[in-house]
Amino acid sequence: MIFKRDMQSFEASIAYARQQDEQDELRGFRNEFFFPQYNGKDAIYFCGNSLGLQPKGVQAAIEQELADWRQVAVEGYWKAKNPWLFYHQQFSKTLGNIVGAKETEVSVMNTLTVNLHLMMTSFYRPTETRYKILVEKGAFPSDQYAVETQARHHGLNPDSTIVEISPRTGESILRTEDILQIINEQNTSIALILLGGIHYYTGQLMDMQSITTAAHKVGAIAGFDLAHVVGNVPLKLHEWEVDFAVWCSYKYLNGGPGAVGGAFVHEKHASDKNYPRFGGWWGTEESTRFRMEKGFIPKAEASGWQQSTAQVFNMVALKASLELFNAAGINRLREKSIRLTNYLEFLLEQIKGIDLEIITPKNCNERGAQLSLLFKEKGKEIHQRMTEAGIVVDWREPGVIRVSPAPMYNSYEDVFHFYEIVEKIASKRF
Ligand SMILES: *Cc1c(COP(=O)(O)O)cnc(C)c1O
């Protein structure tokens, strides 16, 4: 879906914001979440890109598993309401819709960085001539540490193995043409291209389709970290032929702190039982798993990368949350998200007297829910003022405030109140 900006029709008034909320067919989902409280009211929570709110259904979902454990104990693997042996499989369909994959291409397991290492074990197998890893400069630290230590693990020097792509001088976001050019230049020396699907700092959404196509042209693997994409922007990983992807579930997916992560492995690789990997018993067929036989034979799907017993209590909040995603639909959420973030941008553009630059791309097709605000002066103090006024947004070094209205539970009124507060801070020449 390609969206156009429709800034002309927006109005900077509470009446307009309320009217937009009334017309919003997703407005009811807000009531399905708990908001942190500020002075007896819901805080303006724009931090769903860091930790999504708790769905009200989580408690009952946890109590269900506690009850099954209490009442049937080990038999819960087969006899629980949601049998634990297959617990992770409940998520594949909804997640498949969200990332554009077949159910068999999605595996819910571990956590993001662990999955990244597991995927690199399979998909980063350097040779003497093809060994480089292309990443974005300033990638999320955990991703940087993962590629650095993978290079060392293979006996390579990270400095000559990792190629960082930077924005042009004076620019904050990457140009797709520059990424494609570096791919062409580095050509057959590239083993793996690994980028954040949305950059955590700038909020830039990458053109994953073009990058994947270019990677394949030079014989490289294309993998993406979808931490900031999953549940935010719908994807077509299967159709784009992305080789693998990983994500966490505690940001836009509202799976709770440290929730189980996920991985995508394209069917063209996952169907190959001999694809190199580090195996464990949960990657094998359930029907033969308990024969306890020698010889690892993985399932011919993404869950063939599973290793350990499903972490039921680490998945149960995600179950409650994905039911809401199922009901809302990722495409409807994206449509609302585009308008909500455009409205936020429109309002911020009305504010005078404060030196504020939005470093996130202006084109709504090149970003998700998040806007990254760069204040030329006193950014940290402004963040402090926002916090004191009941706004939850985060400060990221070296100098942006990330603001993410989540379409699942944020309203136009939230966005308008945020604007009013920033306006007030600006008028005091802070
Ligand atoms: C949030 C985030 C992570 C976190 O990784 P964990 O293993 O879940 O701690 C990693 N990479 C990116 C890009 C992120 O935004």
UniProtKB/TrEMBL annotation:
What is the enzyme's class at the highest EC level? hydrolase
Q: What does this protein do?
A: Catalyzes the cleavage of L-kynurenine (L-Kyn) and L-3-hydroxykynurenine (L-3OHKyn) into anthranilic acid (AA) and 3-hydroxyanthranilic acid (3-OHAA), respectively.
Entry protein name: Kynureninase
Q: Where N6-(pyridoxal phosphate)lysine occurs, residue numbers?
A: K251
Kindly name one Pfam family recorded for this protein: KYNU_C
What keywords were assigned to this record? Hydrolase, Pyridine nucleotide biosynthesis, Pyridoxal phosphate
Q: Record-annotated residues binding pyridoxal 5'-phosphate?
A: L112, T113, F140, P141, S142, D143, D225, H228, Y250, W281, T309
Transmembrane feature ranges: none
Gene name of the record: kynU
Please tell me the species this chain comes from.
Answer: Chitinophaga horti
Q: Which cofactor does it need?
A: pyridoxal 5'-phosphate
Provide the E.C. number(s) assigned to this enzyme.
Answer: 3.7.1.3
Key word Nucleotide-binding present: no
What family does the database annotate? Belongs to the kynureninase family.
- Catalysed reaction(s)? L-kynurenine + H2O = anthranilate + L-alanine + H(+); 3-hydroxy-L-kynurenine + H2O = 3-hydroxyanthranilate + L-alanine + H(+)
Hydrolase among keywords: yes
Q: What molecular function terms (GO) are annotated for this protein? A: kynureninase activity
Pathway noted in the entry: Amino-acid degradation; L-kynurenine degradation; L-alanine and anthranilate from L-kynurenine: step 1/1; Cofactor biosynthesis; NAD(+) biosynthesis; quinolinate from L-kynurenine: step 2/3
Q: How is this protein organized at the quaternary level?
A: Homodimer.
